[in-house]
Amino acid sequence: MVEVILMACIGALAAVMANLGIAVFNDGLRPIIPENLEGRMSRKELGITAFAMSFGLVIGFGIPISIAGSIILIHSILLGTDIIGLALNRGKINAVIAGVAGALYGAGIYFGLQAVVDAFALLPLNFVEGFNKVGEPVVVSFMVFPAIAVALQFGIKKGIVTFLVAAIARQLIVFANTEKLIRMNGTEVILSPEGIALIVGMIFLITFAVREKSDEQNLSQLAALFTERVAKIKKYVWVLMISGGLVAAATNQLLIAGDPISLNLLAEGKISEGGIASLAKAIGFVPLIASTAIATGVYGPVGFTFVFGAGIFTPHPIIAAILGAAIIFAEVMLLTQLAKLLDKYPGIRASGENIRTAMTRILEVALLIGGANAANAIVPGLGFFAIAGFYLLNEAAGRPIVRMAIGPVGAIAVGIIGNILVLFGLYTPPSA
């Protein structure tokens, strides 16, 4: 019951914030909100834009990945509440309507996901076990993104060095764990090889980034230009704090995750690795979210996404909620200072975009491989054939489905096709 209430509250508050123009989750929508608030775009146009930008991601990205990991990807909820809130005209009555619709939507996602999983068990070909393979490559490959980000920003040679050092660090930890070399007060300590590789890669990325400094004298141009919009965000900080607290508490209960990488790690029981991945992802999103928030006066319902890491690492949901609220408060209060920092170290600002690009490319490859493995586990032979054809036909069609969704969606399609084949007696599962 508590889980349902949490999901309903998150959905309700996010929809209300979207309706009132306080916060939206889709980074692409944030710069558009002022166009409506300042009279240059109709609410109908805004609602249609929100639907066009978010609906496909909910259906093709958020929900399939949520099903694969049995943890709800936050995109499934907050992209939907963006649509709900922005589809209604801004106002107190409509905000209440949006809140009710958002609550029903949040609860519906919770029950709907479980219903889908339960329905799979009733099928003649239950492909849940095979479908779980979708996330396996993600767990292993997420440690590569700092090296890719370094290569994109600082050149391939530095990227290769970062990759090699991270890979060596990983293997040294594997060796140390196998030989039980690391001990504390006589007790064996097992470290995460992927987590250590990620930390090493991030150290390289941050070191390279801070070497680039700005020569400009005025380091607060961005903040000074949009003082009123920063003040608007601070005015509603108490609402944003509630949102951050709810999300952190839900993450603590493993109801939701902020990204596919940490979701798959959490689904495998790798809590600390999931937390590290979540925090690393948050670092990459700071420049984008901070810049768009300062420029538009519209924040995100999960802030810089550090609230997910807070939820993972804290021992109790109430503590997670308090810490999540405190993190959002600190983020908002530090927006002006953060703008100065991003101006002073342009390398850090640029690294945010490169981290996101690197993560996107890794997820595209990892989820495609995972989807192919899952599809082939469901229906051997046909699985690889279907995913390869699905991917190439999607590319030929101009990519109507985002690349990250091809693997999960393709695996679901193969599962459905496999069940049809079983029903018509055209395929006999290996275990049958």
Descriptive notes:
Keywords: Membrane, Transmembrane, Transmembrane helix. It holds the Pfam family YhfT. It comes from Metabacillus arenae. InterPro entries: Uncharacterised_YhfT. The protein is mainly α. The chain has two domains: 2-125 and 216-344, no CATH class; 128-213 and 347-423, no CATH class. Helix content is 75%, strand content 2%. The chain has helices spanning 2-20, 33-37, 43-69, 74-87, 92-122, 128-131, 136-141, 145-154, 156-179, 193-210, 221-225, 227-235, 237-252, 260-267, 271-296, 306-313, 317-333, 335-344, 346-378, 382-396, 403-423; strands spanning 72-73, 183-184, 187-188, 256-257. The longest helix is centred in the C-terminal third of the chain and has 33 residues, at 346-378. The radius of gyration is 22 Å and the shape is globular.
How far apart, in Å, are the first and last alpha carbons? Answer: 38 Å
Strand ordering within the main sheet: 1-4
- Overall SS class: mainly alpha
Q: Strand percentage, roughly?
A: under 5%
* Outline type: globular
State the share of residues found in helices, binned by percent: over 70%
Low-confidence stretches: none
Average pLDDT taken over every residue: 83
* Radius of gyration from the alpha-carbon trace, in angstroms: 22 Å
User: How many independent structural domains?
Assistant: 2
